[in-house]
Design goal:
By secondary structure, the protein is an all-alpha fold. It has one domain (16-279). 74% of the residues lie in helices and 0% in strands. The chain contains twelve helices and no strands. The chain is elongated.
Amino acid sequence: MTTTAPPAITGSRLNTAAIKAIIGRDLRAVRRSKAVVIPMMLVPTLLMVALPLVVGYAARRAGQAGGRIQFLDSLPSALADPIANLPQEEQLLTLVLGYLLAPLFLIVPLMVSAVLAADAFAGEKERRTMETLLHLPVSDRDLFVAKFLTGFIPAVSVSWIGFGAFAIVANGVSWGVVDGLLIPNALWVVVIFWVAPAVATLGLGIMVRVSARCRTTQEANQLGGAVILPLIFVAVGQSTGLLLVDVPLALGIGAAIWVVAVALVARGAKMFTRDRVAGNS
């Protein structure tokens, strides 16, 4: 498909009204697409409700059965000592729900942002609405920002809502065993409100550019699939004790991800033009 871009729109300020209109238009299209909505809802439900419910209940029963947790010996002292000082029946619940599941939740903002970003331009091509989009009287910068926020806002929102559901499940499972609320703790606050938005930004920084170059959402998802694999390995490593994080390390990881993510988004915005998108249609 070929298209003639509208005249360049200059100015230092973002056209917030146009950006909001494009975001609203895109979110309405997302809600009508089962291929986007189902995985976006199913994975967070499994990771943030079903998994902690099953694992937490198993940890509760194992903790009440007694016995020392040998795994604590392999943890950094800054992480192990506070857990070891807890009553024996609280230790396993606190370790599993309070720490070991934290990195698994980073899959949620990355997955949601990747699904939405894959649909950002490739979905427009499949729905044959790309020509209309490219002829909108907005600047390339505003169009890029709108597409970015269409993925970022739902990804972060799903993560935060899911965390609320997880907190309810975790505290419900640990009620009567743990003294007070188990969730949130300092690590979870850092992961959800600092690391998760950074991960969503990182995924979008890559996937928006991939989507702009692909003709279908399936192709975009296939090419962007490598984005989520490293994080899955990190999450599995955490859950098996190969990689353990405490609050300072989580803050550092989040800062590093933010630096890379912002650089990718800034470069993507700089390189983004209608002609390049149209050339891959």
